[in-house]
Amino acid sequence: MALSKIDVANMLTGLVPNDNTIRRPNAQPIIINSDMAVAQRGTSFTGVSSGSNFPVDRFEFYPTNLGAYTIIQEALTSGEAYNNGFRTALRIDTTTADASPAATDYAILRTKFEGQDLQLFKKGTANAEKFTLAFWVKSNKTTTGQVNLFDIDNNRLVSGTYTISSANTWEKKVINFPADTTGAFDNNNALSLVVEFFLDGGSNFTGGTAPTAWEAQTNADRNANNFAIGSSTDNDFAMTGVQLEVGEYTSSTLPPFQHESFGDNLARCQRYCQVYKTESAYGMMSPASVNSASAANGIFTFPTYLRAIPSLSTSGSFGLYSGDGGDAVSGIVIDANSDDASRVVCTISGSGFTDNSAAFLRAENDSDAKMTFDAEL
Amino acid sequence: MIKTIEKYYSPEGLFAYKVTLQDGTIWSVPHSEANRHYQEILEWVADGNTIQEAD
Predict the structure, then answer these.
(1) Do A51 and B1 touch (CB under 8 A)?
(2) pLDDT(A292) > 90
(3) Which of A313, A343, A355, A372 best tests the B interface by mutation, with the highest count of B CBs <10 A?
(4) Among A109, A345, B8, B33, which residue's beta carbon has the most beta carbons within 10 A?
(5) In whole angstroms, how far apart are CA A111 and each of A53, A232, A237, A356?
(6) What is the CB-side half-sphere exposure of residue A231 using CA atoms within 13 A?
(7) What's the ipTM?
């Protein structure tokens, strides 16, 4: 058989690494939880109108005085994103509209990075690399949105735009960003870069031009292409498969998405947040050491080192139990005297306990009780 | 959006802050520069707000 008769093209499958995959400098996805599979805090939140909110781990939705939203981890069962191996997405639905936001109002979806995880981009050197951002997106709005790379260390910004071509249809977008020979990322565990999907904003963030070259950050340029998610309760925005690569790629040369096991993904998320929740009404939370008649220290040793000493938020009812019996817990406070981010001590308030006795902290007839340790950027 | 902040003390001294957000969520925040909530406390104070002493 002549060589020309052999169907070489169809012998190759996606399982064969292409040249770009082999040259990829990162062993794991640069963006953590990029398939939206991990949602430790919960999978649905309603009436979201302010502050820091996580529909899934590592992806923060931050609205400020600009409408109200339901944010969820959505299970996918069909569509092109599903057909490409994605089973979950984050989704934002506008439930209270604000079509005329005040100048300082905004609604942003973003994910953040430590500088020590970005050194492979060689930013601020003569060998600085380009960035390629790819993602699956779906919305009812056929419009153009803006995504920014915001260098926090050097207060620099570059932008890309994407257009939703067909309503309510999963579309894959690939955006190139130039290299930046100015301003290196700090090599530490602090915030260095924000990938920022600017979904709506007042006049302080519009009126400029989306910068296609790195520039000194200007607020007016951050939302020059206003997606305006808050303009109508008809609006929604869904995303999954977010991929940040070193170098410049097109939709045909982009290295394949790096699917991780759920366990690997969860462990990486736990560097930034760990949620302890019970599986039963009286589920165990931690061992404790009584240090007075009315207080004990609960000891949490984390499965993954946190990025920093965490904050703590609790919800639900807890009880403290020792050889003296049990009592409802009236307060739990993080103790910052821990010497690193591998464990923390929580001060627990109860009553009727014997000093220096062993105890344990558990849920108190509350199967929804949980403790959230937060070391997000 | 921070509503109020209160200091926590132990016999050894100040060790954390009770931060109440506008939506009612309460965070116990360590006195740690690397913690994002502590950074928000610093910004909140720089905006002219005052941390309350513990009851």
Answers:
(1) yes
(2) no
(3) A313
(4) A109
(5) 12, 25, 16, 44
(6) 11
(7) 0.94
